[in-house]
Every structure is written in structure tokens, then in C-alpha cells.
Design goal:
The model has no long low-confidence stretch (mean pLDDT 89). 39% of the residues lie in helices and 22% in strands. The chain has one domain. Strand 2 and strand 3 form a beta hairpin. The chain is built from three helices and five strands. It has 159 residues and is α+β, with helices and mostly antiparallel strands.
Length: 159
């Protein structure tokens, strides 16, 4: 008994079923969404890196200015003084404390706003002053990932 060609074509299964296509589409969509998420996170991290470098540069420039200031004028000139960085929406602040007569501890902090609106550091309104609710760790100064503390010594009496 011979089977006709038209009957064979109807009983053969070729291609994919609708459920197989839906599962494949779901897998592809989830993979693509994950890849896009990783891509945008990488862009955000690259921006964070650029901004951190700019903030570190601003802090280093401020330290250079402080080093060129006579020790007797250090507290008056730089305690609670603010500074900025080029191409960065943010503000830095300098704190000067004198633990002894011939030393000064200088802490510089820089806070900024990312393009996505996220504030990096404790200065939520970027005004260079500690307002209510900004000192998260209770140490009495504004903190940030870009923070430098150094000790400066009075060398005027040394020959």
C-alpha cells in the first residue's frame, strides 16, 4: 500500500510549536534585558570614576594651596572653607583642627551630584555646610568617598 505524498506532508512535523517559540522569546528577552542592565550600570560606574578623579584633583589642588599658606593663618583661611572642581557639580569643604600648638589636622571632603541625580557624600544639598540630617555617622563633619586627612606641622621655628 502506497502512501500518498500529500498525506505524508500533513503528518510530518517541521518547525517549532507556538509554545517553543514563546519560551525561546522569553529566554532571549531576559538575556537581552540583563545585558542592557549591565551596559547601563557600566556607564554609571564610568561616570562615577570620572567624577571621583575630578574630585580627587580638586582636593589635591586645595592641599597645594594650603601647603603654601603660613601656619599661623591656616585656621583663619581654611577652616570651613569651601572649594569647587571644574566640570563637576559639587562642593568641597576644608576642616582645620589644631590638636597642639605646632600641628594642624586638615580634612578635605568633596561631595557631588551624578547625572542621574544621586548625591555622592553626606552634603545632600551641596551647600558646603552641615545641615540637619546630613551627618549620617555623627562624626561632626561631612563625609564622602573622596576625603583626605593630613597633618601639617609649624616649621616656622625650625632653622
Amino acid at each position: 500500500m502506497a502512501v500518498s505524498k500529500s498525506k505524508t506532508c500533513l503528518t510530518r512535523k517541521e518547525g517549532f510549536t507556538l509554545s517553543e517559540l514563546m519560551v525561546a522569546t522569553l529566554i532571549f528577552t531576559l538575556t537581552f534585558a540583563g545585558a542592557i542592565t549591565v551596559f547601563f550600570q557600566c556607564i554609571e560606574l564610568a561616570e562615577m570614576s570620572r567624577n571621583s578623579s575630578a574630585a580627587v584633583g580638586a582636593v589635591k589642588n586645595q592641599i597645594a594651596a594650603i601647603e603654601n599658606t603660613p601656619f599661623a593663618q591656616l585656621t583663619a583661611a581654611y577652616n570651613n572653607a569651601t572649594f569647587t572642581a571644574a566640570n563637576l557639580t559639587g562642593i568641597g569643604i576644608t576642616y582645620v583642627t589644631n590638636p597642639s600648638a605646632d600641628t594642624a589636622e586638615v580634612t578635605l571632603t568633596f561631595c557631588w551630584r551624578q547625572k542621574n541625580g544621586r548625591i555622592i557624600g553626606e552634603d545632600a544639598n551641596l551647600n558646603g555646610q552641615m545641615n540637619a540630617g546630613e551627618d549620617k555617622n555623627g562624626n561632626g563633619i561631612l563625609d564622602s568617598p573622596v576625603k583626605l586627612t593630613t597633618t601639617i606641622y609649624d616649621t616656622s621655628g625650625i632653622s
